[in-house]
Amino acid sequence: MTQTSLKANIGVVGLGRMGQRHALNVLHQVPRARLFAVCSPAPHEIEWAKKDLEPEGVQVFDTFEAMIRTPGLDAVVIASPSELHFSQTLAAMELGIHVLCEKPVTKDTAQLRQLMQKAELHPQTKVMVGFVRRFDENYQDALRKIKDGAIGEPIIVRSHGAEKLDKTGYFIEYARVSGGIFLDTVIHDIDLTLSILGDDIQPKALWATGIIAHHHEMKDFKDVDNAVAVVEFWGGRIAHYYHSRTTSNGYDNSTDIIGMTGKISINSVPHHNRVQVSNAAGITQEVSPSWIDRYREAFVTELNEFTDAILDKSELPMTLSAALTGLKIATALRKSLETGGKIQFDENGDEIIPGTK
């Protein structure tokens, strides 16, 4: 890849729902990329790839190890099970292969620091964690308006997210290994907060609480299906988060950004399209059925910007240091939820442990 006109050869790791979406996006909607290869150990996912991707010239592998060593591979999009993200990212980096990894790249802050150290040793290899909301056109427009001074300096962020109640039993099994509501879902809102207030901002104190309204099995692994958190940042900024796994109307995600001279609201009335029905029952409007539908176009933008950074040798739109700050906040919120206590940080963003200096 010595000329910007060339395409990046990209492989997709994992072909579940998210991996399939990434593969089809690279294949059809990323002009500067070529879907070079895919891999999955699951027979039904391999069958899908052979049917839908192999005829397009895409190489199909049943192991990550075989795909990652295929000559010509420039970058990978990792959408495998979360417990594999860290090891697969490291393996790709060591071979000089660029990485876009779905969150979480790890649930362990020490591991993420290790990854950052590895990235410093391989400065030509780009690594980005997939926080897709940064690439949503609505949030990007809001950030442009903030930079243009529309609301003055932002001081408070309120972000709300709610997913439809799942009664099939699938969610509980997923939740057992997800890391909890703050690491699994609220971390997206935390990352949005960093993009709004500044990626270098550090937490000063935080507190979290929650309840179990429907999924009572969550008590076994110390999680909740409705949670609230408040984060205070150094410099006098505050974020407020509410998340639910039990909404009845579909996927509901909205954000308010309060500034010194105004407010910006994103998706205050969640909607699937711009159609409203008015009749004797009132006024109704469809809501997005899931997060993957809400951010359909953002996933495409994310891949295009990742590819551009590779080919143009430019800076990535998302840094690992911001991912570390978000992970520190999310893990501390989980700790606060479990203990009921307020957690404080020094000005470097390191947790203050009571009784230590």
Radius of gyration, whole Å = 21 Å
The end-to-end span amounts to 50 Å
- List how many beta strands DSSP finds: 15
How many distinct folded domains? 2
Which spans of ≥5 residues are poorly predicted at pLDDT below 50?
none
In CATH, the topology of the largest domain is named Dihydrodipicolinate Reductase, domain 2
Assign a percent range to the helix content: 25-40%
* Helix count from the secondary structure assignment: 11
Query: How is the main sheet built?
Result: 7 strands, mixed
Which outline best applies?
globular
For this structure, what is the CATH homologous superfamily of the largest domain? Dihydrodipicolinate Reductase, domain 2
Would you tell me the overall average pLDDT? 94
CATH architectural grouping of the largest domain:
2-Layer Sandwich
Biggest sheet: strand arrangement: 12-11-7-10-9-8-15
β-strand percent reads 25-35%
**Which H/E pattern describes the elements?**
EHEHEHEHEHEHEHHEEEEEEEHHHE
- Protein structure class: alpha/beta
Q: For the record, what CATH class of the largest domain applies? A: Alpha Beta
Family: Belongs to the Gfo/Idh/MocA family.
Keywords: Oxidoreductase
Protein name: Gfo/Idh/MocA-like oxidoreductase N-terminal domain-containing protein
GO molecular function, one term: oxidoreductase activity
